[in-house]
Write a structure and sequence with these properties.
The chain is an alpha+beta fold. It is about 40% helix and about 20% strand. The structure holds histidyl-adenosine monophosphate (HAM).
C-alpha cells in the first residue's frame, strides 16, 4: 500500500526538534510577561467573516490564502491565517474594553495560509505575537517595538533589523490614495497586470510589488510620509524620537506598506539576512480602527507577530543554538522476572517525583542492559537482582564517575532528588 506523506507545506516536529522551539517560546513568555502582557489562547478556526472584515477582502490572505470550508450546518469557517483578528474578537466578546484600562495579550500557536511553500514559507506555521489595546500614545508603539528588539536580542539574533514606516490614518490616507492614483494612472501601461488590477481596489499595494518594471514606476510615485496629516506626522516623529533616546536601532523604509488592511499610522517589519526572499521574521503595527470596525467602541491598538520557523532559520544563519538544561536520567536494570516487578514500582515512584526514569522489559544480560542505559543517555543506573530484592536495597551506579552505592529502596526518591539537585 502507498505510504501517506505529510501534507505539502506542513511538517512534523520530532522530539529532537522540539527543545529549540520550547526555548524560543519560553524566552518570549518570560520577556512578554515582564512587559505586562498576559497569555491568550483563541480557537484555531473562526467564522470566515471575522478575517474578511478585519484583514480586508482585497488582501492576498483573504482572496487566495485562507483554508475555508462549510461545516455541517453550512456555516462558513476558516482556519486562522493570523492571530490579531481572533484576539480582537475575544477582546470584544469578553467586553474587556468595559474595564476601561489598557489590555495586553500575547499568543503563540499555529496559523494556516495556502501559500506556495518555499524556504521560510509554510501552509501551517507558528506565530508568536502580542496585541496592546487602549493606548493611542506613541509610547505604546515604542513599548511594543522595544519588546521586539529585546526578544531578538534575548534570542541572540544580532543581525535582525527593525524597519519602520507610517501609513497614515482615515483622515490623510484617502487623500493620499487619490494623489497616488492620479500619479500611478499615468504609468499604468508600464505596470504588471497584478498592479493594474490593484489600481482601483488597493493601490498602496503597488509598493510591495516585486516586478522590476513596477519597482521602477514606484520611484516616481508620491510617498505617504509626505502626505500625512498633522496628527500622524507628529505621532511618527515622536515615536522615532523615543526610539532614538532609548538606543533602539531602526531603519525608516518609506516604501513599506503591509499586506493586511487594518493598519493605521505606524507599521514595522523585522528583517534578517538569513531569510532571502521571505525576509520578514516579524511584522506588525498600529490598528486604531479595527476594534470599532468589528462592532466595538473606538479603541486604539498596536501589535506584532513573529514567525517561529523564520526565527529558527535566523538562528541557523547566525549559528545560535538555544539549549535548555537537560534533566538527568535514571535507567533501571532488572536481573530476573521478580526484579521487573520491583523496578516497575520504583519506576513509577521516581516519575511521580518528576525524576526522568526509564527501563526495558525484555529479559537481557546485565551487559546488554548497560548498553541500553548508555543509549538512553542515562546518568545513573539502578541495578536490582535477587540479592537487592531480599535486602530491599538498590545498587546505584554513577555512569560518569563509575562510583557505586547501595541505597535502601524506601529512600531512593529522596536520595535522587538530593543528588540531582547538585
Ligand atoms: P504578517 O506579516 O502576515 O502579520 O505575519 C507575521 C509574521 O508571520 C511574518 O513576518 C512571518 O515571520 C510569519 N509568516 C507569515 N506567513 C508565513 C508563512 N506562510 N510561513 C511561515 N511564516 C509566516 C500578521 O500576521 C499580523 N497579524 C501581525 C500583527 C499583529 N499586526 C498587528 N498585530
Amino acid at each position: 500500500m502507498k505510504m501517506l506523506k505529510v501534507v505539502k507545506g506542513t511538517y512534523d516536529i520530532m522530539p529532537e526538534d522540539a527543545p529549540s522551539r520550547v526555548a524560543i517560546e519560553e524566552i518570549s513568555r518570560k520577556l512578554f510577561k515582564a512587559y505586562g502582557f498576559g497569555e491568550i489562547r483563541t480557537p484555531f478556526f473562526e467564522y470566515t467573516d471575522l478575517f474578511v472584515r478585519s484583514i480586508g477582502d482585497t488582501t492576498d490572505i483573504v482572496e487566495k490564502e485562507m483554508y475555508t470550508f462549510a461545516d455541517s450546518k453550512n456555516r462558513n469557517i476558516s482556519l486562522r491565517p493570523e492571530g490579531t483578528a481572533s484576539v480582537v474578537r475575544a477582546y470584544l466578546e469578553h467586553k474587556v474594553y468595559a474595564q476601561s484600562k489598557p489590555a495586553k495579550y500575547f499568543y503563540m500557536g499555529p496559523m494556516f495560509r495556502h501559500e506556495r511553500p518555499q524556504s521560510g514559507r509554510y501552509r501551517q506555521f507558528n506565530q508568536i505575537g502580542a496585541e496592546f489595546f487602549g493606548e493611542s500614545s506613541h509610547f505604546a508603539d515604542a513599548e511594543v517595538i522595544s519588546m521586539i528588539d529585546g526578544f531578538f536580542k534575548a534570542l541572540g539574533l544580532l543581525q535582525a533589523v527593525i524597519k519602520i514606516n507610517t501609513v497614515g490614518c482615515n483622515d490623510c490616507r484617502p487623500i493620499y490614495r487619490d494623489t497616488l492614483k492620479e500619479s500611478m494612472g499615468k504609468h499604468l501601461n508600464d505596470m504588471c497586470p497584478n498592479c493594474q488590477n490593484r489600481f482601483e481596489r488597493n493601490p498602496l499595494r503597488v509598493f510591495d510589488c516585486k516586478e522590476e518594471k513596477c519597482k521602477e514606476v514606484v520611484k516616481s510615485l508620491p510617498l505617504i510620509k509626505d502626505n500625512l496629516c498633522h496628527t500622524c506626522d507628529t505621532h511618527f516623529s515622536a515615536l522615532l524620537k523615543v526610539l532614538d533616546s532609548n538606543a533602539i536601532n531602526y531603519q525608516i523604509d518609506e516604501y513599506m506598506v503591509r499586506g493586511l488592511d487594518y493598519y493605521t499610522q505606524t507599521v514595522f517589519e523585522v528583517t534578517h539576512s538569513a531569510l532571502g526572499a521571505q525576509n520578514a521574521v516579524a511584522a506588525g503595527g498600529r490598528y486604531n480602527n479595527l476594534v470599532e470596525s468589528m462592532g466595538g467602541p473606538s479603541v486604539p491598538a498596536v501589535g506584532f507577530a513573529a514567525g517561529v520557523e523564520r526565527i529558527m532559520l535566523c538562528l541557523l544563519g547566525e549559528e545560535v543554538t538555544l539549549t535548555q538544561k537537560e534533566d538527568k536520567t535514571v535507567y533501571l536494570i532488572s536481573l530476573g522476572e521478580e526484579a521487573k516487578d520491583f523496578n516497575f514500582k520504583l519506576l513509577n515512584n521516581l516519575r511521580k517525583h518528576s525524576i526522568n526514569a526509564c527501563t526495558g522489559y525484555e529479559t537481557k544480560s546485565l551487559k546488554a542492559q548497560m548498553r541500553q542505559a548508555n543509549k538512553a543517555g542515562a546518568d545513573f543506573v539502578c541495578i536490582v537482582g535477587e540479592d537487592e530484592i531480599n535486602a530491599e536495597i538498590v545498587c546505584v551506579k554513577n555512569m560518569e564517575t563509575g562510583a557505586e552505592e547501595s541505597i535502601p529502596a524506601a529512600d531512593i526518591c529522596g536520595r535522587f532528588l538530593e543528588i540531582l539537585q547538585k
